[in-house]
Write the structure tokens for this entry.
Amino acid sequence: MMILTIGEVLLDIFPDGKRPGGAPFNFAFHLKSLGLPVIFVSRVGNDEDGNLILNLLKEKGFDLKFIQTDTNHKTGHAACELNTEGIPCFNVVKDAAFDYLRYSEMESALDENIGMIYYGTLIQRSRKSSDTLMKILGNRKPATKCFYDMNLRPDCYSEDIIKASLAHCDILNLNQEESDIVKKIFGISGEDEELAGYLMDKLAVEWVSLTKGKSGSRLFTPQKEYAVHIREDNADVADTVGAGDAYSAILAVGYLSKRDPQFIIELANRFAGEICRIRGAIPDDDRLYRKFRQ
């Protein structure tokens, strides 16, 4: 069963160099490295950075026919600053190639056996790409699940975008700060449990996943709440770039394979922890994935 991943791919600019990034790219890269069938849809510029990304995707075995090339806009990039705990702050440059995603160049992707569509918020900061994404979600088959990985970036989202994204959502992943933002949107003054209950009751969201960094995570389902509380030493953390994307990858696979939710979030936390031990969002080789492939 194919997972269709739609969104930005860009270069994260660190003080010591640049690395491929973007939550949808990281998510798709992890799934592909874990041996799962993935279609990745994005748009890059006709430039050196775009070629770097295309070569990496080709090397990984992605079908490049779903990666559009823009001759008028540059490949996206984001300046990344890390605080003393390795937590990143991204400044995403505006008017990038991924802001001009075209629906006409990806219709064939929907002809595949798509079990899940993954999307986020940043790809929707422009009207062009937002309309493209909403058209894809609107034309999906009824059985296709939607995974909304919120990933809010400063000045790159609106209340309307979040509401439209949630309207299609079956599985939601968000962090504590994003949970507080969504509470304000819907006028919820209570705890995270109240928000999860509202989203499940009113918007038919099946799973609400709340990541809490080094404090673990919580997963709300209609039947039960699950939780992981991390108490291990975090001294070996290089940075937390892409940790949430790694968590989402395991969450998506676990959902589709109907594994026990407690097992899923424990494995997702472990995998996210492994990503925190390397520099950047994706490893330089496949050895990290070996113990997670089964």
